[in-house]
Amino acid sequence: MSQSISDQKINDEPLYGLCLTELGVFCLVGKMERVASTKQYFFLVFVLLGLNVNISVEGGITSRYVRKLEASVDMPMESDAFQVPLGYNAPQQVHITQGDHVGSAVIVSWVTPSEPGSTAVLYGPEKYKYKYEANGIVTRYRFYNYTSGYIHHYTVENLEGETEPFKPYRHRYHVPYRSSTSTAPFWYSIKRASAYIIVLSSYSAYGRYTPQYNWLEEEFPKVDRKETPWLIVLMHSPWYNSNNYHYMEGETMRVQFESWFTKYKVDVVFAGHVHAYERSKRVSNVAYNIVNGECTPIFDPSSPVYITIGDGGNVEGLAANFTEPQPKYSAFREASFGHAIVEIKNRTHAFYHWHRNQDGDAVVGDSQWLYNRYWYPHNEPTTSS
Questions:
Q1: What is d(CA 178, CA 369) in angstroms, rounded to the nearest whole number?
Q2: How far is C-alpha 164 from the chain's CA centre?
Q3: DSSP labels, 55-89
Q4: Chain centroid to CA 142: how far?
């Protein structure tokens, strides 16, 4: 490998670093130095959300390493969450659910043990300022030798609900979407040294003629591979995922956009969502339609490497249930938390390496040299180095 890039050797120190959250938010973590335009490179540090593991004779490598599935500590029975509320006939087993089709009402239910309670619910827009009242019903039932308490149901109507989608994201994470002519902060692009990075939204409409579709259709032709040799795409739901968790959830988006990815020779795609790790070979499934039945991914030198890097850690735990046998398109997978770094060396070569967090030290769990699809479209070794 060193011989193949010796004519483009550059300084060993990194130009700069980028921290990437699962939502596609960037923060500069290093410093940037200018070098010859064809010799710029950078580090991308990816921390997204997880994936899983498996083995097949025809597939790639399923790591034998499995992170210890540590059970959470049970809540003690003496916790106040399980205690009967203090006071005579105090309400318990309170339950709130949506009360109409459009979400402008809620049904409030609870049980009183000794006798029916109040026939009214007081509510209002602020704490301790209950200006409104709703009346409901009280019922109870017998089941064999069991007699329930007094069950109260009240419907609170004409509420003002939250209608702004993705409100926490919009307020917490500002991104430069307008600079790439995007109409929303969920899909946009940036140029960073020798890379053109496109961020897509798995949870915004992407069908034909939607705003995201129209934007991406116009965005790909803008990429000048002489100025930014590397083309990288980020998204949430993976397209190629051999984990049973979130399996095939990205399929409709893949069908919509994959032909563009191969046409414009995207180098690598990073996704999250699945709480484990997986790296694919360069495959595509663009020949498939419901008539020809050709639904098996095939090797495609114009396609990107798909990496599921959703293994940054999450309270939901690992996605430790891969499909068997491991599909041919899957090069490496492991049910671990970790992070990865992409070192772009020059316009033809980049070195990618993934580290499992469990190791404690800087131990490489998976790695691969990436060859640029536009400038050096040769086959890379896909086995973990």
A1: 34
A2: 21
A3: --SSS-EEEEEE---PPPPPPPTTSTTTSPPSSTT
A4: 47
What is the side-by-side strand order in the sheet with 17-20? 26-28, 17-20, 43-46, 338-344, 349-356, 364-371
Give me the residues paired with residue 154 across strands: 108
The residues that are catalytic are 246
Scan for tokens 């020798």, then name that residue: 194
8-state DSSP, 270: E
Let me know: does 110 contact 152? Beta carbons within 8 Å.
yes
- Of 67, 52, 43, which is closest to residue 310 (Cα–Cα)? 52
Q: What residues in the chain have per-residue pLDDT under 50?
A: 1-57
User: How would DSSP label each residue in 295-314?
Assistant: -S-EE-TTSPEEEEE-BS--
CA distance 297 to 299: 7
What pTM did the predictor assign? Answer: 0.66
Closest CA to 96 of 110, 84, 113: 110
